[in-house]
Amino acid sequence: MPEKVCRYVTTALLIIGQANNAADSDPQLYHKADPTYNGRFTVPVLLDRKKETIVNNESSEIIRMLFTEFEDLLPENVRESAHPAGGFYPQQLRQEIDKMNDWVYNTVNNGVYKVGLATTQDAYESGLFPLFESLDRLEKHLGRCGHWPYLFGKAITEADIRLYTTLIRFDVAYHNIFMCNLKMIRHDYPRLSHWLRNLYWDGGKTLNGHAFQDTVDFYVVSCPHCRISDVLLTLGSVQIRV
Prior knowledge:
With 242 residues, this protein is mostly helical. It is built from ten helices and four strands; from the N terminus they run E-E-H-E-E-H-H-H-H-H-H-H-H-H.
């Protein structure tokens, strides 16, 4: 089987392709930063092009770095410190955001991959049921006072951004390709569906124009997962499913 690697494109989207000695392939980026590196090649990564090295490859840390470490480079009126609600990680909500991030990451963000890449029925079910229990929990959360139109009220926080990246892919890729198919967001979770559509379609000042929509390409969302599914089929790692 030809080696599969992640390749970066100018739109900052990721696709899976044949290794072709391109300067922007995932292994080459890691080896350029550390020629002795022999671990996993993961994405996303934050690159320092000037020093030609990887700054960070942990998505949760990169998110916070983007709105903390680069503050001095921004006009004062768009800095986190100038945001009336306290920015994406407001001091008064940090404990609640951290708690939500923890269980959402383990059961939703990472949960869909536990399901889709499971190689046994037990592993599949151990990821599937916690995933939908957490989606049920999020649906109830949005119905509570003070948790609308975003997860923690009237302003977008880091928790919304982290959840969005998984839910915008859910019905398109995870439901049918990764077999996370007990329910669908658009049919079975009215509050989550409304929350998701609001983030995607709102072109107003709150969302900095269509910032969420402009960073989504549904072809790129679905195509890599189809290829991963093909690899699992080739290897015979297909779950019985429920």
